Hints:
This protein is an all-alpha fold. It has eleven helices and no strands. The model has no long low-confidence stretch (mean pLDDT 89). It is globular. It has helices at residues 9-25, 31-43, 47-50, 64-73, 79-98, 100-107, 118-130, 135-138, 141-149, 151-172, 176-180.
Amino acid sequence: MKTLPEDHPLRRLFAGLTEHSFQCSLGVADPGLIDYLSGLLSRFLHADAVYRVRDGQGNPLAEVAEMLVEARSLPDGGRTQREVYRHIGDFTLFWTGLFPEALGRQRSSWSKDSFISYTLSGKQSYLRASQYVDDACESEAPILFRLSKDFEMCAFGLNQVRKEWEQLAASVGPGPAKLIGTR
Length: 183
């Protein structure tokens, strides 16, 4: 999966919007949390990243209920299981914070996800992912725990990020080149 370089204009835009929204709207000055959330926005630019969890046949899973089943089917304590739980947290936070209106439409359909809470699933998934203790995961565990504990605040903050980027887009007019400052 391809990620944006650190100096990419969209990555810088997301970092600035996230920092501004969390510090000014919420009074949250937590560089690790802000970096994680702006990184989430950069990662989820690509649909492949949003729908990266796959079933046994390699088909992308688009419902949280299916992702939870997949996570539970993996061996306990493995890094892969942790990554699936982390992804479920990211997925639910992304949709809850940035596009809550899409969740309302989804709940009106007959999908498995219409019977679960994205907030509760996200909080529980981040908590499970934060409990893995191997060296490769240790540095991220406190951020994942914080996302579990403060999921609703982070969703609200991401909604503020969306409002800010919509205001920015309206002020610069049409065209992605103007929005990110490139030609």
